Amino acid sequence: MLRRVFWIALALVAFSAPRVAAQNLCSTTASSKVACTVANVYGVNGLTNDGALAAENQHQGQFGNSFLSNLGALNSSIGTQLGELPLVSPASGISFSFNKSLGILVPAEYNFGPILSERAGTLGRHKFLVGFTYQNFQFQTLDGAKLNNLPAVFTQQDTAGCSAGGNNIKGCAFIRDVIVTSDAIQLRVNQYTAFASYGITDRFDISVAVPTINVREAATSIATIKNNGSDDLYQFQSGTSGQGCSPNPCFNRTFFNSNGATGIGDVTVRAKYEVWKGENAGLAVGADVRFPTGDSLNYLGSGAYGVKPFGAFSFGFKRVSAHVNGGYEWNGSSFLAGNITPSQANGVVAATKDNLPAQVVYSVGAEVGIIKRLSAAFDFLGQEILNAPRIKSGTFQELPACSAAPPVSACNTFNATGATDPVFQEYKSSYATANAAVGLRYRLFGHFLLTGNMVFKLNDAGLRSKYVPLVGLTFSH
């Protein structure tokens, strides 16, 4: 009966993965998706006269080219994280061994296996395990940069000016204005995961993990218009909904936007086969298949299929054991790796997809039986994210300010030097993440096992939390 349930679940997730057509994602009034929180911090029309800027002389402001309008690194990192949020090892827990004196299978009393890694052993023929875990992620940094301090500069598009080629080097007017911002992003994810495993044979088992995700993102931007054109052309509209604006001319304003969502995340199906079993050691191979059942634009899932073949070698004795895991994950295409805020062309905004970065995953760890019913687990968890969008700090050189208030597009004199502003720039490269995990597993009574674990970051590459707590409860029989 349980075997049928697994195959039915596999078929259901294969056909229930959402299929989102390219459409106006963050440029419509319906763009309340969590992935649009940062893109729409200035409203769906952005920094234009139809959005946050006040209309002046019928000139349409169009500011762009900043970290906030190019979200590839942030969204791709979130997609990568959602596709690789650590799950409790479904085949670990209370194992059974044959007691010669009693002539029956009895549950383990000392060593309950790894928590976030795999051991080679499987559940055993017709054995099953069900469980539930809770994890909390509070993301603080992206490539070492604090999410609560991300400076960005918005620039006006070039127009034909007084200089040859239309680059406005000699022009002294609105084209010199920039909007300098100090930005803060808050991102929190709660993950509730139900999972089940079933032993098809003595060496082969299959597992299904179904996460429910609760996510909340908020973005705050403190924006200042640098009136380098000395013409007061660009100003912010008066503040609304509690968002402040300084007196006329309005050159300073604080913007805020937030969204949240709750729903089913990406369902993962795992199959594992123990290819070799020695007296005190074993070797297993397996594969995870991730289905994009979560709404990626609400950060409930990665938005892409994923396949991760892996191997697990483990050895040990009654109270002490160790293991080594390694695998490679291939990911399909997702809006989170593409562009959800494209420019408008021919009246149509077409969001694009791209492949989420592939990654190499590995871990090494050990488990120790402390006392009867209680064991500890230690793990080093590593990932190599391949050719992924990242950010780094840089500077932006403003055009010099005009020395006098000019008419629009006039060619007046200006000061010799312009201000320099900090910004973040996007680029692509591979990077490694490293985490340490420490946990305890306690056998409550019968076949119930209580798990507590904490993951600590060891470096700053990628989108990171300082620590990730986990609690869980499993039942095996």
State the domain count. 1
Largest sheet: 12 strands, antiparallel, barrel
CATH architecture title: Beta Barrel
* Beta content: over 45%
Averaging pLDDT over every residue, what do you get? 81
H and E string: HEHEEEEEEEEEEEEEEEEEEEE
Task: Please provide a written account of the structure.
The chain has 477 residues and is mainly β. It has a single domain, classed as Porin. 6% of the residues lie in helices and 49% in strands. The protein has two helices and 21 strands. A twelve-stranded antiparallel barrel has the order 4-7-8-10-11-12-13-16-17-18-19-21. It has a two-stranded antiparallel ribbon with strand order 2-3. The model is unreliable at 1-22 and 161-169 (pLDDT under 50).
Explain briefly what this protein structure is.
With 477 residues, the chain is mainly beta. It has helices at residues 2-16, 72-83; strands at 63-64, 96-99, 104-107, 128-142, 145-146, 150-156, 178-199, 204-226, 252-264, 267-277, 281-291, 306-316, 320-331, 333-339, 352-355, 359-371, 374-397, 420-443, 448-457, 463-465, 467-476. It has one domain (2-476): Beta Barrel (Porin).
